[in-house]
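DM from R.C. (forwarded with permission)

"hey, sorry to bug you on a friday — could you get me a structure for this? deadline for the figure draft is monday and I only need the backbone to look sensible"
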Amino acid sequence: MLPFIVVFMVYLLVSVSLYYRQDSMIFYPEKEIWQTPKHIGLDYEEISLTTNDGVVINAWYVPAKNEKGVVLFCHGNAGNISHRLDSIKVFHDLGQSVLIFDYRGYGKSGGKISEKGTYLDAEAAWDYLVQVKHRSPGEIVIFGRSLGAAVAAETALRKNPGGLILESTFMSISAIGRKYYPWLPVNFIARYRYATVDKIDLIKCPKLIIHSKTDEIIPFEHGLKLYEKAAPPKEFLEIRGGHNEGFMLSGAEYSEGLRKFLDAIGKPVISASE
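My reply, with the result:
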């Protein structure tokens, strides 16, 4: 009986520890802005946005010459906007202006990170594009990578943009938690949801889901299941390489997949019977 009690107490202790440590396990913010779009030859505006709960967040607006569209960029859980210049350049080369923002607690943004807070941060960025830059919702494509894709999906559900791109993302925090901690009651102790799998079939705009079979952090099956559950219109782009560098290693294949999707935004969908 004693060994069982010891094992149970250890199990309980680990579960409680993980419950309270989730902030530091999910979010990896960095405060230092180590470079700007100027370092790669791009003009940009640095702007401050105030969220509906009064938090001031930092953002960059990077205009494209001969603009074809605009992308609202929701980055992943680590670093800050200054670590996303390669991705900004990809969209810029495709004729897309980019608005990228730092979540509260990241970079120069104030406040403390939370799931609800990330949604409010993205909403403030959306409102800036609509109210200040005078973009119609149908002109905006929301892009999110990794955890940022969960933020992008929530924003798309609320705002109905012209398109949604989800790259290298998970179905939900609980689903990815079960991969790393299959022996723990993840559904019970998870304080964060980010449950894109529960929203994807409700999002009406065109969707592009991108994932790599060799993603070492988020299994390929997460991307496939999100695609399978998504309501049409939808597309799937398989890339190669790891979680953080797959878009770079895939090169032209990745860029061309984005280009085809972005160019199709706003064009009429022709059914197979027509």
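R.C.: lifesaver. The longest helix spans residues 2-20.
me: no worries. Residues 105 and 197 are 26 Å apart (CA to CA).
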